[in-house]
Amino acid sequence: MDRLTDRAAVRALLVRHGLRPRKRLGQHFMVSEAALLRLLAAADLGRDDVVVEIGPGLGTLTGKLAERVRLVIALELDRTFLKVLAETCTGHRVSVVRGDALAVNFDDLVHRHTGGEYGRGGKPYKVVANLPYYITGPFLGRLVKDNRFWSTAVLTVQLEVARRLVARPGTKEYGALTLLVEYYAEVELVGRIPPGAFYPAPEVTSAIVRLRRRQRAPVEVRDVEGLFRLIRAAFGRRRKTILNALTGADDGASRSEWQALLERAGIDPVRRGESLSLAEFARLADAMCDGRGGQGSCN
Questions:
Q1: Of 257, 55, 73, whose CA–CA distance to 150 is shortest?
Q2: Which terminus of the chain, N or C, has fewer Cβ atoms within 10 Å?
């Protein structure tokens, strides 16, 4: 089997199967042994682990994962790569599944492939992926909101996205995605990966990020959906004061009502939304529940 971290071997494999990387699907294959080892080390893999891999492509990472864990469930969208994976993953503890990472529930997927031992209510699993960059935001949203039984996710993303995930209030990178992921997971930027670590090389620098799912949210809030509606509204008009950004939001409150809610939450109405912490947004969401008399989804 050709070494899949060798550029010439990768090109030869693609030619043999009549394939070429598809830019539309964000196909950039990792060809750096050093980058692969950093990704694997960040996942802290054990022999009993079950891993979901997104976008296995040629199977470079897949094979390395399978050497270390009990089972790899490799989710591939592009059917043209299934034949390649059948070749490169022969003899490994790998189950290749054709599917869309933005549509599949990983808890259910793992549950089915492990006879119910892992996944939905069973043992936790891990997610490791060299993500297609065009799906990063939607993927992270689905991972943290719709899947409860993963423990760790180690992902390669654009450096710009990695900075957003670890951003602090008041910085230009801080936004709704920062807060969404912070609510569900602890995030760490593990390190950068240069464009040359991939074939073909992307136009941007990449980074490895590690997410550890929280057992308990860092803030208590009565209406989680209401919290994130507030956050989206605040960042939807980013350069406005929080009062101006929220006035006219879909919640139906008037400017004077928002003023009163902000004051009740102890938030200066002239601050901008990007300066508010998750805890402050949670206080405002609870103030809204109080203002509605506990109606709607407030407990």
A1: 73
A2: C
Element (H, E) at 68: none
**Is 299 a member of any domain?**
no
Distance of CA 281 to the CA centre of its chain: 22
Query: Which DSSP letter does residue 82 get?
Result: H
| Both tokens assigned to 295 | 């109606």
Q: What is the pLDDT of residues 236-250, one digit of tens each?
A: 988 899 999 999 776
Buried/exposed 114-151: b ≥16 CB within 10 Å, e otherwise: beeebbbebebbbbbbbbbbebbeebbbbbbeebebbe
> How many residues are listed for the chain in this entry?
299
Give a yes or no: residue 93 inside a domain: yes
Amino acid in the structure at residue 39? L
Same structural domain, 65 and 174: yes
Amino acid at 145: K
Q: DSSP state, 284?
A: H
Domain CATH number, residue 46: 3.40.50.150
Average pLDDT (219-238) is 94
Indicate whether 174 and 272 sit together in one domain: no
